[in-house]
Amino acid sequence: MSGGVLLAGPAHVDDLVIRGARLLDPVEGVETVADVRVDAGVIAAIGSDLETNGHRVFDGENQLLVPAFVDPHVHLRTPGREDEETIESGTAAAAAGGYCAILAMPNTDPIVDDAEVLRGLIERAEHEARVPVGFMAAITKAQAGAELAELGELAAAGAAGFTDDGRPVAAAGVMRRALQYNAITGRTIAVHCEEPTLTRGGHAHEGPVAAELGLGGWPSLGESLMVGRDLALAEEIGMRIHLMHLSARESVELLQRARAAGVQGTGEVTPHHLCLTDEAVRTLDPNVKMNPPLRSEADRIALLDALRDGTVTVIATDHAPHSREEKEAPFEEAPFGVTGLETAFSVLYTHLVEPGLLPLETLLERMSAGPAAAFGLERPRLAVGAPANLVLLDTAKSWVVRSDGFRSRSSNSWLLGKTLRGTVTLTVAAGTIAHTA
Amino acid sequence: MSPELRVVGDEPLPPRPERRHLLEIGDLDRDDVERLLATAASFARSQQRETKKLPTLRGRLVVSMFYESSTRTSSSFELAAKRLSADTLAFKSSGSSVEKGESLKDTALTLSAYDPDVIVIRHPQVGAPRLVADHTAAHVVNAGDGKHQHPTQALLDLYAMREATGNLAGLQVAIVGDVLHSRVARSLVQALGLVGAHVVLVGPPGLLPEGLAPSTHELDAITSADIVYVLRMQQERMLEGANFVPSLREYTARWGITPERLRAGQRVMHPGPINRGVELDPRVADSPAALVVDQVRAGLVVRMAVLYDLLTTGPVSVETAAEVA
């Protein structure tokens, strides 16, 4: 399903029929109850009472069949921390969450800043991946923020895009050169916006909660200052830029202004920043420690507004697996990050769609078409002739998030013990049945 | 020791489920504070006798886990436990398996295998006591976690303030100095709020976190205070190059507490250790206005009260314990 961007995944394709589901593809304008037949991985027919042709049949009655999700921000921890996640476990988690494609971050050990490492990962993914994976490569060598990685060679070797995620490109001059030079690759540069001298020692949003708990502050300005800088650079150079995991009101305001002025900037938000505020940090539970941190209610509302009005077009999980030992530590010692692939749709459906805060169509678009567009991937769609990238959702069914219920090798979820509405019955990714409930 | 004592824990008393631990001042309400201060006062009377040891917690085990240096807190907890006849086991991170990389959770599990009744923990990181509480059946007392909380310090400060001024409600307290890095300040602000005292925070702008209490960088704000509570500049908690103040010299010139900056009748407190000549002029530290030694003395009886309160059913029998023993 790549529009020039290489995604590595399962080679075989399946035949199947999904009976009687409610089809919804807001971008294609599809909203109907119908059968869908997939022949050799391609949507061959949409209609009523379709012949099954001996295909495997799934009952979709009273369920929702939509374009499968795309997550452009996943940490697969491979190579280096296969105890936390592998390509196989991470893509199985993605399939279980309804994703048909994910992009893996390059901050591994070794860092993906060299074509050999990248080729090795692509080869492994061809054997292991349950859903197609694109591998992002580093913007700078060793993600040290000083020298550009060989963007041209990395793109030729199959890099899906470039990011130093986990770290900022702190020097404006380096970021400017990267954006200029990236013109040769046509890939997206995705930036982790953090001004390190403002966030040093920060463990929680700088505000009354961190002040009371005595946690080092990570101020909103630590993000928005870099958002402003990077949008200004993108405007000057005339290049596309993607802003990852936005958390602050000021950041989305800057993005809105820049987009209105014609800057090709896209923005991304995570389920945890849409559902939680720094009030959750009072528990001192390391599973609510993320970078950027959970912010105030005003920030959360601003992110939600930006998601609704289209300033932000991408929902990404920033799925960041960590071992139990690492997270069973005092808050300040515990690493940043939470898992999210297996809970993203359910938690957003439960917290935003059901209470009427976000239209279902908008959620679906921001989890699929939006991220695909931001990274130049082919958009999953419900149309005859399109590759089958489908997810069947049961929005009437509830489930309880449990640490032993994940396909991911890690269970550092902020939702442990919570009841969520909405389950994934079936995921078809690039024509392959990737997950069945 | 008298045979008629009713508080000795031969028969195990069920812990009060509503407060199994003392992790932060937020675990307490005003009644809890009043009861603890009253209990401490009765223990103080017991400490004026020739035989200072009470049999109250005989057979109980109090384990202390100190991951940070401490003089007053560790010694007073140990003495408090001993004065109540509890066994004590002091664990220090240096020279232990922590240096071999043992995690806090594993150390807590290991020490819990001795079935302690109370674990007293000090740790450089916020939330460490809660982590220990999650992995032990013992009552956990926070003896200071990072910049977060130091609840027994706040209680002993209330005790010393009441001893010195007679009243807590309506008391005016100015906390001066490095509030940002101070767990003492965070606990004390909450504790003073519980008892109806008024607080103002005074210090360099970058060291006054927003939202804790009214704050100002103008030292004149101490004029109306009954108590001037002086904090140490915690340079060990400041990241290199953080530039909170240009120099200690400039800090002292502007915010140092000198006799000239105090008015008659004001009392001065400091949680220690004091950097003499930096935040506190030695002439003040050594003057009758300073309550520093009273605070240390209060530390012993307040910590006795905290241990007693966690391990027995209530305040009534402490009078018995103190009067009869």
Could you name the key traits of this structure?
heterodimer; A: about 425 residues; alpha/beta; TIM Barrel; 8-stranded mixed beta sheet; 8-stranded parallel beta sheet; 14 helices; about 30% helix; about 25% strand; globular; B: about 325 residues; Rossmann fold; 2 domains; 5-stranded parallel beta sheet; 4-stranded parallel beta sheet; 9 strands; about 35% helix; about 15% strand; disordered N terminus; disordered C terminus
How does this structure look, described?
- The complex is a heterodimer of chains A (437) and B (325).
- Chain A is of the alpha/beta class and 437 residues long.
- Chain A contains 14 helices and 18 strands.
- Chain A has helices at residues 87-96, 115-128, 151-156, 172-181, 196-199, 208-213, 221-237, 249-260, 271-275, 297-309, 324-327, 344-353, 360-366, 369-374; strands at 16-25, 30-39, 42-47, 56-59, 64-67, 69-74, 99-104, 133-137, 161-163, 188-191, 204-205, 217-218, 241-243, 265-269, 314-315, 390-400, 419-429, 432-436.
- In chain A, α7 (221-237) runs parallel beside α8 and α8 runs parallel beside α10.
- The model of chain A has no long low-confidence stretch (mean pLDDT 96).
- Chain B contains 10 helices and 9 strands.
- By secondary structure, chain B is α/β, with parallel strands linked by helices.
- In chain B, α2 crosses α9.
- The interface between A and B is medium-sized, with 20 and 23 residues.
